[in-house]
Amino acid sequence: MSSPSAKIQDVFNEPACDKNRGKDAKARKEGCSKPLTPGAAAGGCAFDGAKIVLQPITDVAHLVHAPLACEGNSWDNRGAASSRATLWRTSFTTDLTELDVVMGQGERKLFKAIREIKETYAPPAVFVYSTCVTALIGDDIEAVCKRAEEKFGLAVVPINAPGLVGSKNLGNKLAGEALLDHVIGTVDPDDAGPYDINILGEFNLSGEFWLVKPLLDRLGIRVRACIPGDARYLDVASAHRARAAMMVCSTALINLARKMEERWDIPFFEGSFYGITDTSEALRNIAELLVRKGADPEILDRTETLIVEEEAIAWNKLQVYRRRLQGKRVLLNTGGVKSWSVVHALMEIGMEIVGTSVKKSTVEDKERIKQILKDDNHMFEQMAARDLYAMLSEHKADIMLSGGRTQFIALKAKTPWLDINQERQHPYAGYDGMVELVRQIDLALHNPIWRQVREPAPWDCQPAVKDEPPSTTSETATVHTLKKFAGKTADDFGEC
C-alpha cells in the first residue's frame, strides 16, 4: 500500500500558488503550509474534505471504510443539489467493529461491501474512502479496490485521505488527486466540440449553478464537467476533452486545474459567479479562452450581447432594493472565494463592508479584497466569538452574513443574520442569484422582529404611577411587584 505522505507533500508544493512561487528553493520544498495537527484540524478533517469534494458526483456509490460514526457524522452535511441521479444520497459504510479490527477482517469486509453494492445498485463506479481507523490498522484499500475492479468489472476508486493526515482543505486537494489518478481521462467521448468547458470547484449549493448554466447554453457553450456540482461519473471521466476551464474555488482544487492544464492543455482562470460584474467578467473570460483554443470569434459578440441584456434586467430588478440598502453596513464572516466575490457584489448596490474574514482565503483572494476595499483594515484572519458579539452589539454592522455556526452570535446581539455558506436555502449565483441575495438581505434587515426584540422589556420600564411600599410587612418584594403591575396596560407606563 502506498503511503499518502508523498502525495501530501506534492499537494503542498503547488506551483500555481503565488505565495509558493515567491519562495526560495529550500522553502518551496516545505510546501505552501504545514498540515494541521490531528485533532486541531479546524473546520473538519481530511476525510471530511475529500467527501465534500466527491460526494456531489451523484451516480457514484460512496463507500466509507470505517466504523459507523465516520459516515454518520459527515453524510449529507452540505446543500449540494442533483438534477437526476440520487445514489449519492444513500449512505454506504463497512461498519467496522472492534472484533473486525482485532481479527483483521477489514479488507475482507470491504470487498464484500463492494460486491453487495455492485449487485444491488450497479453503479458506474464505487469510491472507497480510507479513514483514521482503517489507515492506522493498515488496511490496503488500493489493493482491495484493484482486485474488486478486476472481479466485478466496474471502476472502484480508492480515496486515500484519512482524517488524521490533516485539515479539510488538504482533503479537498487529495480528492482532486484521486480524480486525476483514477477517473479523469479514462473515457474518451465521441462528441467533443470546440465549445466544451469544465467548471471546477463549483458545488451547486442550493442548485445555484442551475442559474448560470442557462446562460452558457444560450451562448452554445457546453459544460463537459462541473466538478463536483451535479456531476456524473462519465462526465468527470471525460473532462480531459474540454477546451477551457473556470476555477471557482481555488482553495479547494487549484491542483486539479493546474495539472489538467499540464496534461491536457486545458487553460483555466479563476472567477466568480457572485455579483453582476463578476458574472459578466466570467462569461467574457470563458469566451476568450475558447477563442484562444480555436472557437469561432463570433462567440465574443454573442457574449457581449447576452451580458448587456442580462445586466439591464438585473439592474432594473435591483433598483427598488438599492434605495433601501444604500449605506447599510455588512459584516462577512466567511472565507475562500466568497471573501472577495460577495464583497464586490454587495458594494455594487451601495452597501458598506465593515469587515470580511479571510481565514480560508488564498493569497490571491486577499489581494483581490485589498483592490476592492482599497484598505486591508477591514480584513481579519479570525475573530473570536466575543469580538464578533461586541462588534454587533455596539451596532458597528447592520447585518452579518456567515455560516450557521455563528448565527447565534448575531441573534444574541439582536442583529439581522443571513446564511451565506453551504447550508443556505437560496441560490445566489449569476444575475438572478444576485437579485435573490439582495432580496434576502432586504428581508432580513427590514424584518419587524428586530424592532420588537430591541425594545426594553416591560419590567425594565419606569412606571408612571407612584411606587408604594408593600401593604404588609410579610409581603415580599416579588409579590408586591406582581400586584403593582397586575391589570396595567402599555398606557400606564412612562418612557423606557
Question: Could you characterize the architecture of this molecule?
Answer:
By secondary structure, the protein is of the alpha/beta class. The protein has 4 domains: 4-182, 3-Layer(aba) Sandwich (Rossmann fold); 196-314, 3-Layer(aba) Sandwich (Rossmann fold); 326-424, Nitrogenase molybdenum iron protein domain (Rossmann fold, 3-Layer(aba) Sandwich); 462-492, no CATH class. Helix content is 46%, strand content 11%. It has 22 helices and 13 strands. The strands form 3 sheets. The protein has a 5-stranded parallel beta sheet with strand order 11-10-9-12-13. The chain has a 4-stranded parallel beta sheet with strand order 2-1-3-4, with helices on both faces. It has a 4-stranded parallel beta sheet with strand order 6-5-7-8, with helices on both faces. Strand 12, helix 19 and strand 13 form a beta-alpha-beta unit. Helix 14 runs antiparallel to helix 15. The chain is globular. It starts with a helix and ends in an 11-residue tail after the last helix. The mean pLDDT is 83.
